[in-house]
Write a structure and sequence with these properties.
heterodimer; A: mainly alpha; Rna Polymerase Sigma Factor, Chain: A; Arc Repressor Mutant, subunit A; 2 domains; globular; B: Arc Repressor Mutant, subunit A; 24 helices; 63% helix
Chain lengths: 200, 515
Amino acid sequence: MSAYQAGDVRAFERLVARHEKPVWMFLRRFTRDAVAAEDLLQEVFLRVVKSAGEWKRTAKFSTWVYAIARNLCIDQSRRAVHRQAQSLDGPLKAGGDATETLHDRIPAVKSGADDRLSDRQAAARIDAAIAELPDDQREVFLMREVMEMSFAEIAAVVGASEPTVKSRMRYALGKLREALTDLRDAPAARAGVAESAGSG
Amino acid sequence: MAMTQDPMSHDQIDEQMVDFLYGELPAAARAAFEAHVAGCERCRREVESLGQVRALARTVMDEAPPARAHDAILRAAREAAAAGPAQAAAAAKAGGAGPAKMGAKAEPARASLWDWLRGRWAFPTLATVGAVAVLVLGSRLFLNPSTVHEIGRPASAPEPGAGPRASEAELRKQAEEVARSSSARMAESNEPRPSAAAAAAPPLAEAPATGAPGAALAESRAEKKRSRAVVRHAAPAAPTKMGGAGAGAFGSAGKGDPLAGLIGSTPTAPKKSEARDDLVEGLSTRDGSGGLAKDKAAAPAGGAPEFQDRPLAAAKPSHDAAPRELAKKRARREVDDADDEAPVRPRAKQPALAERSPAPSRAYAAPPPPAEPAAAPPPAAAPSPVNANEAFADDAPAEAAAPRRLDRTASRASRGGAPAPAPASTPPPATAMSARARVAAADAEESEQNQAATVRETLVQRADRLFTQGRWAEAAIAYRDLLRQQPSSPEAERWRRRLAAARAAIATDRPPPSR
């Protein structure tokens, strides 16, 4: 960032290359809207360009960028408050059984060779499970999993204590586990156990 | 596994679970955690299940951003760097309106008329201004009373008092009628000999003839104040139309007199001096002769055609004083021109001005003066005594006003031979001198006549006024006194009738039907 402040555009390109994907993932999961996430992604780095002169060397660039992304997401959520997010557990409004929920329409994952998990279906269920998390838990989960921020950094960004952030993370993991119980036997899940336990 | 050797409880494991999963547990705590999990099936399954959730979530966390967004970001960064820090901020601001504009070239902000009109506030503001303008114009066009009355009405249709001009004409007409009847009644009350018009007039003098001395002083003052207020708002056109009757009506305008309101409603206000002249004229006619004198003066002049149809016979007194009055007016105007050079008198000296008030107002000055009357009486050397009513023409007491009046008359008589500044329209000095002499003579004659009739007239006027005002007891006393003093008066019969009516009203506590 210091190099970009000195006029090195390529330094900014490296910053973008490093943080673009996590920011995108965070925005994508947080907003649950690909179009809005794309707009916000441009806006985040536009803010970086605009505020390049204000950045201090003492600040961590990733924390600064993610804080910008989070604030933009919150603003976007307020603007789009009129949009009714469809609940997985709520009854579908149009068509179908009155008691049918969106969760019911997501195909259940069945173990076995003949009934293998479809990556696409699994991804949809995981996305839906993440989207169902409360905002405070979802942002902590995404910051940790996607942006790989430490709990201390997350606590600084969201303005909460570190134990609170960890508690939110614990609740988020528990809810995802409940939502994705039948997926845990999938090869990807089994393969990720050792990695997640070891890498943290 | 020996659980007894594990110092950690399940609650402690739960507290450190997130730190363990994400590798933030210190090494010593991690070792203890792993030791516990290795010996505890429940905690081991917990760690495995949460690890599987993390692994599942990561399977969907590997998604690259759209290439167009990446390109737009880099393009904006390059442009900002090329433009410099200041313009970078401007470019960022310009792009802030929408991320899609980020790749567009930053252009200097231009505010064209169309951009201004497209502003969020422009159209509502213009619409509001336009609506207000339409309302204002519409209200002025369609809510104007005169316009509204004229809309849809044929040009020949009568205007029943809609417009102010129609109202003015109507009011003037009514004022003329009222003044005419008032003059007739005044003539009836003043004229000892009942003329034909007086006989045709109503027997009751409804016009509250005021100005009686003595007991009526307070009422006279109050009426003077009211008349003054009316006169100050009177237009010169009104007396022009109404003539002497209007001026006389000023003097007789009492409570509830419709003429006062009519005169006050004339649109054009007169000059202060003219109004004062009218006021003084009106006040000077409280003896009942001034207003008639004006009528008499206007009648032979013939310069005011609107007076031709007036019942002049009713207003004409027994002696033909009109030519003499005109001569007096002309002469007094000359004298007043000289008086104008004197310092302004205070308000208390209005009674002195009242004396010259019979000089015609502007309405009477318009017609050319008639020929000098051949039978003008010779000039009287002695100053005429003061008319008692003139002393009451203003708030000044009679004993204070009378000496001034005498001085004024005396000074006027002494100035008879003195050269006076003659206006351009006045006759030669010799004629003016003779006019002054005639004025003095006329004053003397008039005063003699008035002096003899003043006591009777004022009593008659007071009685009539009391009767008109419904003060039956006082009216009865006044008529009784009149009958005692002048039992053979031509009006004695009328007084008797009124005395009887007043007594009947006292007895029945109801006004007589003839009132």
